[in-house]
Design brief:
Elements: H1 3-28, H2 33-56, E1 60-66, H3 98-130, E2 132-133, E3 139-142, E4 149-151, E5 157-161, H4 169-184, H5 187-200, H6 205-230, H7 233-246, E6 253-254, H8 261-270, H9 280-299, E7 300-306, H10 309-316, E8 355-356, E9 370-375, E10 392-401, H11 402-412, E11 429-432, H12 436-439, E12 441-452, H13 454-469, E13 473-488, E14 526-532, E15 535-543, H14 545-556, E16 559-562, E17 570-576, H15 605-611, E18 614-630
Parallel strand pairs: 1-7, 3-5, 11-18, 13-16
Antiparallel strand pairs: 2-3, 4-5, 4-6, 8-13, 9-12, 10-12, 13-18, 14-15, 15-17
Length: about 625
């Protein structure tokens, strides 16, 4: 979490706490000024403690359901299971660093407000040191003040203006009762803390509102203390009005400071009751009402879940066996221009001008002799598989989206030499193009004039087919955008994630919703992602941190960079609700081919990672994009 995000979250949670706390005394019709002051001070303490409470208290998840349409994708039989293909979304970027400018503005204004506080403290100390003792403990006099004022934070003293010895006994008693009330409640220290809190959250109206209420309630409580002693509201109001008309001191806690003078005078003259001070019951009530508000303000976390995920998947499944096999569309640059890995992120923002994808011209690339492109028939069951690694002259893709074809042709099999695992190509993101390239499905059957390998057909030859029949144009960009840093959560221990070092066996994958090959003691270094009810199950054994961050990149839709410091391999098992902007692989059948039961919706991937000692924190990262400039529906056969 960067500084701006930290401040924004603090201000938001603080505003919720202050507004909610202000409504409680209003609803309960609390009139006692001492109780209201105590409530405002409690809110101030809660707001100051919010950042610490947010990271230490258990989270309270609040589910925000948003409908989302999801397309069905499924597995190819590969050693490492694929993660979901990134969605086509343009991440805005600008040359001007608005975040840095905003942070600079915040610092300038905050420092100005802090400087104002420091100047007030210096003035207060100078006035106090220049005052004279009166012979009464804690009471001093000075010709530099024209109204009574309390100066000092840790050892406050009452400073009276020159000529105070000419006052009558009632006037002096009222003034001293007022100022001693401030000292007894520690108002100078409380108002200093409130001023610092306001300077830190100066952009939040709630912080200014809270500070004004603390100052006002403090003066009202002290007025009540003075009226209680004198028993003469009119005389005290006249005394106060006289001080207000000539008050000039801006240091300490002046008696004549308040706001609108007429409101204060009317309150004194028209008041029907006086503050009785704090009691044990009032303190207990403030704690009982304020503690839950502070806890909720600090701990609430929103989790957005796709409400129609299960229904959409089930409605979209064709009438084929539940364990289907098709490659998830993944994105990665060709080997000539590999993208920066999470460990090799540049220190400064990188933005390169858009350049065409460096591929041979269509006339120079191999092409199919004949090719048939027709809309997908969901009831058609193709004979056999997609083809083995050997040479062949036939190529077929059944019910495949154009985005999946682009991902394979320009990234996974771009060089025509064997291709890469889907998980290893996820750092590059495909974006752009109309919505139909994600939804319309086509069946492609083609023949070459001579036997060639599958990577050549899926890569260079499919590139030619897409450019000729779909009028596809693409280019590649590298730019900085939103990302995540994978770190160790508070209290997280790398030892708990360390790989066992033993062969991966069937029992390791017992929670997966599809059958694993029994007795297959294959080596580790693998990860499986599968749908189980409304949740995703991510199971990894002996996986490197580089591979894990690549898998998490697919699950979150953003680049994930490893900042954990873990050097060895890890074991991991996560059950989480998929995010709206990610499209991981889905399987909706159990090991015995029975429908999966409606499992409870799991936590977000962020919460699931924290439970195993890891944490995703927002950051910036440089990522490569394959941008679709233009594409058209295919020409007729």
């Amino acid at each position: 979490m960067n500084t701006i995000q930290f401040l924004a979250e603090w201000a938001l949670r603080s505003s919720v706490l202050i507004v909610a706390g202000a409504l409680v005394p209003m609803a309960l019709r609390v009139k006692d000024s001492s109780i209201r002051l105590a409530a405002w001070v409690a809110l101030l303490c809660g707001s100051v403690a919010l950042p610490l409470m947010t990271v230490t208290l258990p989270a309270v998840p609040v589910t925000v359901v948003r409908p989302v349409a999801e397309s069905v994708v499924f597995f190819e039989s590969v050693p490492v299971a694929a993660v979901g293909a990134p969605q086509a979304s343009v991440e805005p970027h600008a040359s001007f660093d608005w975040a840095r400018a905003g942070l600079d503005l915040y610092v300038v204004i905050a420092l100005a407000l802090i400087l104002r506080i420091v100047i007030g403290l210096v003035m207060s100390r100078r006035l106090l040191r220049g005052s004279r003792a009166t012979g009464e403990p804690g009471i001093r006099e000075s010709e530099q003040v024209r109204a009574p004022v309390t100066l000092g934070i840790f050892r406050p003293a009452i400073v009276l203006p020159g000529g105070w010895r000419e006052w009558d006994g009632a006037k002096l008693t009222a003034v001293l009762a007022h100022e001693r009330s401030h000292i007894g409640r520690l108002d100078p220290a409380v108002q200093l803390l409130s001023a610092v809190h306001r300077a830190a959250l100066w952009f939040s109206p709630a912080s200014w509102f809270l500070h004004s209420r603390i100052v006002r309630a403090g003066e009202e409580a002290s007025d009540d203390a003075a009226v209680t002693v004198t028993r003469d509201r009119a005389s005290y109001a006249k005394l106060l009005l006289d001080f207000m008309s000539r008050q000039e001191c801006r240091a300490g806690v002046p008696m004549a400071r308040y706001g609108a003078a007429e409101k204060r005078i009317y309150r004194i003259l028209d008041g029907k009751s006086l503050s009785r001070g704090l009691t044990r019951w009032s303190v207990a009530a403030i704690v009982m009402l304020g503690a839950p508000l502070a806890y909720l303000a600090a701990s609430v976390r929103s989790e957005q879940l796709p409400a129609r995920a299960i229904a959409v998947v089930r409605e979209s499944l064709p009438a084929t066996p539940p364990l289907v096999a098709q490659v998830i569309a993944q994105v990665k640059a060709p080997p000539a221009k590999p993208p920066a890995t999470p460990v090799e992120q540049p220190a400064t923002p990188v933005e390169q001008p858009a350049t065409p994808v460096e591929q041979p011209a269509a006339a120079e690339r191999p092409k199919f002799q004949v090719a048939s492109i027709r809309p997908c028939d969901p009831n058609y069951v193709p004979p056999g598989g997609r083809g083995g690694p050997g040479a062949t002259d036939r190529f077929r893709r059944n019910c495949v989206t154009i985005r999946s074809l682009i991902s394979d042709a320009y990234i996974r099999f771009a060089d025509g030499e064997g291709g890469r695992s889907p998980m290893m190509t996820i750092l590059t993101k495909v974006e752009g193009g109309p919505a139909w390239i994600n939804s319309d499905q086509y069946t492609i059957e083609a023949e070459a004039d001579a036997p060639v390998t599958l990577p050549v057909m899926a890569g260079p030859m499919t590139q030619t087919l897409l450019e000729e029949r779909f009028q596809l144009k693409v280019h590649r960009e590298t730019r900085e955008g939103p990302a995540y840093e994978l770190t160790l959560a508070k209290g997280g221990a790398a030892k708990t994630l360390a790989a066992k070092g033993t062969p991966c066996v069937a029992a390791d994958f017992a929670d997966l919703p599809f059958p694993f090959r029994a007795g297959d003691d294959r080596p580790c270094n693998m990860i499986f992602n599968a749908r189980k009810g409304p949740n995703m199950v991510m199971t990894a054994r002996g996986l490197s941190m580089e591979q894990l961050t690549q898998s998490l990149t697919g699950a979150t839709g953003r680049l994930v960079m490893d900042k954990t410091g873990i050097t060895g391999n890890v074991d991991l098992n996560l059950v989480y609700a998929p995010e709206v902007d990610a499209a991981p692989a889905r399987v909706v059948a159990s090991a015995d081919a029975a429908p999966v039961a409606e499992d409870p919706v799991g936590p977000s991937i962020f919460t699931a990672l924290e439970r195993v000692g890891l944490k995703l924190e927002p950051a910036k990262g440089s990522r490569e994009y394959l941008v679709i400039d233009s594409v058209s529906r295919p020409s007729e056969n």
